[in-house]
């Protein structure tokens, strides 16, 4: 990652994914909270790859 805006973009992606996952879990109800932890842990490398892909295209 090249600069601080890339780090901010990764954090924003992870927080957005966590927020959407939490909303889905609240509407479904009764899901294990560890599912949210797994989603966030998997979202970190996915967001990093997305930012690297964006930088490569520019």
Largest sheet: none
- Element order, helices and strands? HH
**Count of β-strands:** 0
**What is the number of domains?**
1
Number of helices: 2
Arithmetic mean of pLDDT: 85
Q: Which value, in Å, is the CA radius of gyration?
A: 13 Å
Measured by DSSP, the beta-strand proportion falls in under 5%
Oligomer: single chain
N-to-C CA distance: 13 Å
Helicity range: over 70%
Q: Low-confidence parts, pLDDT < 50 over ≥5 residues?
A: none
Keywords: Membrane, Transmembrane, Transmembrane helix
Structure, explained:
There is one protein chain. The chain is an all-alpha fold and 58 residues long. The protein has one domain. The chain contains 2 helices and no strands. The chain has helices at 4-28, 34-57. Helix 1 (4-28) runs antiparallel to helix 2 (34-57).
Task: Give a short synopsis of this structure.
Keywords: Membrane, Transmembrane, Transmembrane helix. By secondary structure, the protein is mainly alpha-helical.
Question: Secondary-structure blueprint of this entry?
Answer:
Blueprint (H helix, E strand, L loop, with lengths): L3 H25 L5 H24 L1
Keywords: Membrane, Transmembrane, Transmembrane helix
């Amino acid at each position: 990652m090249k600069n601080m805006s890339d780090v901010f973009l990764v954090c924003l992606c992870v927080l957005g994914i966590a927020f959407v996952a939490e909303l889905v879990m609240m509407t479904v109800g009764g899901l294990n909270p560890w599912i949210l932890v797994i989603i966030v842990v998997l979202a970190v490398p996915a967001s990093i790859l997305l930012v690297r892909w964006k930088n490569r295209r520019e």
